[in-house]
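Issue 218. Parser rejects a valid record. Input:
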Amino acid sequence: MSRRRITVVIRHVAIWLASALWALANSARAGESLDFSAADLDFFETRIRPVLVAHCYECHSATDGAPEGGLRLDSRNGILAGGDSGPAAVPNEPAQSLLLLALRGETVQMPPDGRLADGVIADFERWIAMGLPDPRKGDDEPLRSKVDLEAGRRHWCFQPIERRPPPPVADIGWPYGDVDRFLLASLDAHQLHPADDADRGVWLRRVTFDLIGLPPTLEELDAFQRDASTQAYAHVVDRLLASPHFGERWGRHWLDVARFAESSGGGRSIVFEDAWRYRDYVIAAFNDDKPLDEFITEQIAGDLLPHADANEERDHLVATGYLLLGAHNYEEQDKRQLEMDVVDEQIDAISRGLLGMTVACARCHDHKFDPVPTTDYYALAGIFRSTQALEHDNVSKWTTRPLPLGPADAASRTGHEASLAEAETRLAEARTRQGSSDAATVKMLEQRIAELKSAGPPTPACMAVQDALAIEDCKICVRGNVRRLGPAIPRGVLQVALVGAPPQMPANASGRLELARWIASPQNPLTARVYVNRVWHYVFGSGIVRTVDNFGTTGELPSHPELLDALAGRFIDEGWLTKRLVRELVLSHTYRLASSVAADHAIRDPENRLLGRMNRRRLDPESLRDAMLTAAGTIDLRMGGPNIPADVLAKSSSTNPAEYGFVFADARRSVYTPAFRNSMHELFEAFDFADQNRSVGVRSVTTTAPQALLLLNSPFVIDQARAAAERALAATPELSESQRIERAFRQTLFRGPSPGELDVAMAAVGATDQNNPEAKLEAWQGLYQGLFGCLDYRYLD
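Output the parser choked on:
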């Protein structure tokens, strides 16, 4: 036996012994109810259970007799008990888990028909480290549903939206509108009073970042301070809503929900070369204040909508790219499995993003917590199985469709055809002549014609879906297994959220248009509530329902249900317009409050659920980056268009996709920074950019030591600090050092320095040799870098 084999055997025995001892020590706890979070269980349902069903249950479940090796993987207890070799996994201990070793091929190779993708194995490692969250009891799930739909409809989010007037309040002069009346009534009921109003500069910085994602200029600050009219605040808000940067800021919010990325993720991560068109469509939609019902319908079924002209047709096609943005392993050789994985991801994105429901949890069984039977899942699956989203090959690919030609495209095509015709005419003439020069001309023209034909006329394309050739209902995949099929389920929508008759699915079309219209219907109890709650979260820092992607029974209850319904009802009645809703919220008295915490609020409302003050919020990484570029004067405010160089696109089909050779050196706004799934800008990674693998309504907000170190050592931060210093010294030669420091503070923090801060800054910049330009520049660079790194810069009060 080789030394390596002996080492493997010894390690296997050691792990088996440790696992066995753990199992003995914890056997008494096998019957305990473990308190896993909804997010943990969701991870199991979406990332682990489907793999177990597809690759493990055939040999390691109780369905077909005795499981091989005595190992059952169809329940958590079965995994903990293990088989002939001992426990299959040890909670929180991936390195001691035989299941993970087998998946890696370090002991035996499991599954025996081929190694799973590295990303899937990483999911199992993460799952074990989480403590094996798993709701299964070990029995085969019966096909007959146990979901009580009538009882389920009593949950608050499935009730019809009620448009109630706001309650009376004691201080009738304080509210600016109905939003304030609802909130003040709650504060009155808890014997609390709102905080004082924020300083004008604080409010201006807050509202400018919230609406356009950029800091206000000093000129805008001075103009606002001088405006003594009663409409001063409204003038600012209307200017910001009209800015094209509004679409960039609020479009980025939607891109989180849409799990927007520019590469495919798992397996050989391939660049989505046309994803930028969807990003630009979203930005334009928010700038144009496209009604939400239209926005939703176009993204689910734009290709099935009528269009007035070529531009509208282009928008409708590009919008359906929403269905193709998910993370997938296009190298998957089991094409049936890949197709169902794509369908599952589409159902998950739509149900979370638009309905606030975790419907994908019903892929393998009835939903464990919400009134969603597995038949509802497959009713939706039939719609997307009847939609073509894949083009199969050894490495499959998402579907693309040519775009109708606009005037510029048509001119380009006409020019190409004219060049080809001219070259062919000249070639025919040259061939009738004789001589060495004519032979050279013939050779040159032949080469030119070959190049023109090879390149072809420019044909713009986009990521887009279309109805499949075969329109059919989807059969249930029993426990998610694509090869163990149950009855076909008629295409349809979620029964629990139905009001009136269900939409009729056409025999000759997928049903996407009917689904989109049902989701965007005024009668749907979920859609408007979910969207209004998202907007509230972006404005106030926390949703009325804090679990913005989950309105189900495992989500939180709304803090102000009557207010949510009043806003949702008015949002529908006034045309589903985002800008109108945002305007109402940011012009409320509540939004104008300071973020300081009073003693009684800290005791009675420590989480600020009653909104007696504004929440202090950290800037997202895009705003941090864009603010630094703005202070440095280096920001490139060009809008739209492709953002990934051709050489990177060419490299994206390689087997080493982590970087694509791309360097994040562009100075454009962060919304245009390439959003690769395997690589991102260092600021995005450090400061909690959205997880691009799923629909995200609430980003994580962490505080870590590496964040501070990055702001000290990042070449990007250092470069912007130096550019800001150069700009300040060049633009203000007439100012004294203290005046220049005052300006630097107002430019970055929108306040002047405290006496202590001024002393420190003067000591830093005043200690340098004023006759040494480089030393002076370095001192000012250090000052700006310190301002970029301070808490007041990173947070909105």
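Fixed in the parser; the record now loads. Residues 3-33, 139-143 have pLDDT under 50 and may be disordered.
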